[in-house]
């Protein structure tokens, strides 16, 4: 064999090798390229409907081979089940909220029917404790200038709680703040202690001024009863309605210890 023939054969083998490598590179398609193609061709499966019937996938739950159409049906069914569970939770929560607001509405009607303003603070305390299963509750009602404690007259008093209540634009829920009144709340619990606290400012109208007429304090032995991340819309509603009623209190009211 001549050198020219040998060189020609060697060159031909090289060309075939390069073609094979080029073909191999062309066939190497990664997942992202497949996804990109399908996203840019949304009508692919409509134009090639027979593919859905032929393509088979492994079922992630049982390991069985199923059609792509069957797999898609299972995915949609799972999503529907998840949406159903979410909807059921929302409906259950809505039912609970409605019951709570129905209770509050009934209480507000009682408070409006109370002709004796001096009886309101104790009545509101009793109503809220009974209807919302509170471990401890105390209402403080003070004068317009916050220099006189109307209810409970002669009770624990501190300017700190007045300042804090006036600074609140939404109820406070969370750990205790170290106020003197918290010790009074703790005395109402079986354990003699509270682990979480809710403080609701009571805003009402006196004469022509919209002022903070007092504060509603609720204590719980359960640390998770009142937490910083809990919703406060319902507590805010209680504060507005109770505050409107308690704005009628204009003189010191002593606790009935009988």
Q: Please, could you describe this protein's structure?
A:
The chain is of the alpha+beta class. The protein folds into two domains: about 5-75, no CATH class; about 115-245, GAF domain (Beta-Lactamase). Helices cover about 50% and strands about 15% of the residues. The chain has nine helices and seven strands. The protein has helices spanning about 5-25, 30-40, 45, 50-55, 70-115, 120-130, 160-165, 180-185, 235-245, and strands at about 55-60, 65, 135-140, 150, 170-175, 195-205, 210-220. Strand 3 and strand 4 form a beta hairpin. Helix 5 packs parallel to helix 9 (about 235-245). It is elongated, with a radius of gyration of 36 Å. The model has no long low-confidence stretch (mean pLDDT about 85). Pfam families: DUF484.
């Amino acid at each position: 064999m001549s050198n020219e023939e040998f060189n020609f054969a060697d060159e031909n083998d090289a060309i075939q090798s390069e073609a094979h490598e080029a073909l191999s590179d062309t066939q190497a398609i990664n997942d992202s390229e497949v996804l990109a193609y399908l996203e840019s061709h949304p009508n692919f499966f409509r134009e090639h409907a027979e593919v859905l019937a032929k393509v088979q996938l492994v079922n992630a739950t049982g390991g069985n081979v199923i059609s792509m159409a069957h797999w898609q049906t299972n995915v949609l069914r799972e999503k529907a089940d998840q949406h159903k569970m979410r909807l059921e939770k929302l409906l259950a929560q809505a039912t609970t909220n409605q019951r709570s607001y129905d209770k509050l509405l009934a209480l507000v009607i009682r408070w409006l029917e109370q002709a004796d303003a001096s009886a309101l603070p104790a009545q509101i305390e009793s109503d809220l404790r009974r209807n919302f299963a509170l471990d401890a509750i105390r209402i403080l009602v003070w004068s317009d200038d916050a220099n006189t404690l109307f209810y409970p007259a002669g009770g624990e008093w501190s300017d700190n709680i007045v300042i804090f209540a006036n600074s609140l634009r939404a109820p406070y829920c969370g750990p205790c703040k170290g106020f003197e009144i918290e010790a009074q709340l703790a005395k109402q619990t079986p354990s003699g202690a509270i682990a979480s606290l809710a403080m609701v400012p009571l805003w009402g109208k006196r004469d022509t001024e919209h002022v903070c007429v007092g504060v509603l304090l609720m204590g719980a032995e359960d640390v998770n009863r009142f937490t910083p991340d809990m919703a406060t819309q319902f507590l805010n509603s209680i504060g507005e309605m109770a505050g409107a009623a308690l704005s009628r209190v204009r003189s010191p009211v002593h606790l009935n210890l009988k």
